[in-house]
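User: Can you predict the 3D structure for this chain?
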Amino acid sequence: MAAYRLPALVARSFLFVPGIELGKLERAWSRGADVVVVDLEDSVPSGRKAEARSVTVERLGRLDGRDRGRTWVRVNNEPGLLEADLASVPRRGAAGVLVPKVPSAESAEALRSAVDRTIGSEVGFIPMIESAEAVLDVQKIAGVRGVTTLMLGEYDLAAELGMSPNRLGAELSSIRVGLVVACAASGIAPPIAAVSADFADADAFRESSTLMRRMGFFGRAVIHPVQVAIANAVFTPTPEELEQAERTLAAWAQGAGAIARDGALLDEATVRHARRLRALGDRLRHG
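Assistant: Here is the predicted structure, written as structure tokens:
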């Protein structure tokens, strides 16, 4: 089977699975998620990090080309753990790594260099924004060489800021938009929407996912298989959206400058959005 790499732009769901739990890892790639994230950080107790690396090496070594292309690993960003975690990711064994608690662009550059040395420059790299310092430096972090996109660690950030977000996380809206702007300005993929730990409240998860898609996020981190189908549904362009995108592009091809279509303004910004929707539809259909 040919190697397969799911573009980060169209990964609708990122299923985080504890790297220490082989049973869950055995089933993870059959749960319907676009991307499986093998987690060596928060879900692994401090005394079992080495064991989790061994499990990760063994499981990643048995993946076929398609599943390797939709596998990421979240490592620990701590002295004594980072290098060992990176070394547990086989070359060509995963599409990329997520690194938590990246405080600055300077740190992101050093981390990218560490990934290059240990795994290779061709793998993806997603810094996680989880502190006030990182929020203030987010534009520069997004612009670091080799950054694929960004992800917000909302629980850690809210704790540092003393926030108590409601079920939709409205208090974090301005920070979320800041990530979207930073990614767009740097020309990288839209950011990944943060995890929701309350997997029992499907309605809230669907509502917050829809809100974040409207904000400009694409794809969402999930911690339970029940959230996968919801994330996939929310972040898949609907047939109506794809049809409207095709009408927009057809109308644009027939005219020049800003023109009206269906009572609405048709301009370069509208066309860019339509092109993106069509590309998403094509990639989801054809991989």
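Residues 1-8 have pLDDT under 50 and may be disordered. The chain is about 45% helix and 15% strand.
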